[in-house]
Write a structure and sequence with these properties.
about 280 residues, Arc Repressor Mutant, subunit A, 3 domains, two-stranded antiparallel sheet, globular, LysR_subst-bd, transcription, DNA-binding transcription factor activity, transcription regulation, WH-like_DNA-bd_sf
Length: about 280
Amino acid sequence: MIDPRRLRVLRALADHGTVTAAAAALHLTPSAVSQQLAALESEAGHPLLLRKGRRVSLTPAGSLLVAHAHVVAAELERAQATLDALAAGSAGQVAVAGFSSAITQVVAPALAALKERSIELCVRDAEGHESVRLLLDGEIDVAITEEHRTTDRMSRFPLYTEPFDVVLPPGREAAGPVDLASLADEDWVVTLPGNPLRDVVEMACAQAGFTPRIRHTSDDFRAIEALVAAGAGVALAPRNAVRGMPVAGVAPLRRVVAAVRRGSEEHPLVRAVLDELRAAR
């Protein structure tokens, strides 16, 4: 019989790639994780891991077992939520992480209503990819993130959709919507490589017929706004992060959702938070 507690260890290894990283996420020692994985391989009767130096990868049997582990984890979350539903209406704390403009847009407005329901939010500022990791590692209960970052291990609830606006230096403000093609010869301030919002900007520029000449990078939209204000270039940013000029034609969009671990949406406290977040949008 496979011990479901060891499936959690296998999931952490699949998520983090090394025994050391999985141990840190589970608050265990690396030797304890190695012992749990060895015991799981014995229970499964198949080799589950391929070791390559410090990193490991899953065998076909390991990948199959991880898929089942996701189903088991969701059912355990659902079972806990069902039990907790017996105490619906009780006070409690819910941990939420989201990027700064989402905190301003929906999290902060929901705080007062939740406080009246004796529900306390513990809010953490985290970019979309980081909040998803925190959610899957069990460190938070709700992640406010972009829709495309979510996985089938999560249930997601739409909050709002926001367009990207053009941010121009002082004295360059346009009288109306800005044609991106008119900015082909400008220097650009964009997010760092690997940030999906950079992909949005580059794709929008490509559709306008040019490749942006990137001079400055930052993942902090306050810094981007300051650089543009100093005349360093132009930018394209989500409307709730930086106020700019609308894009002529079809503007790029980002869809913001509240994501929870699949099954936990039935927890009464999580459900109450989701309700208030959607009411605040």
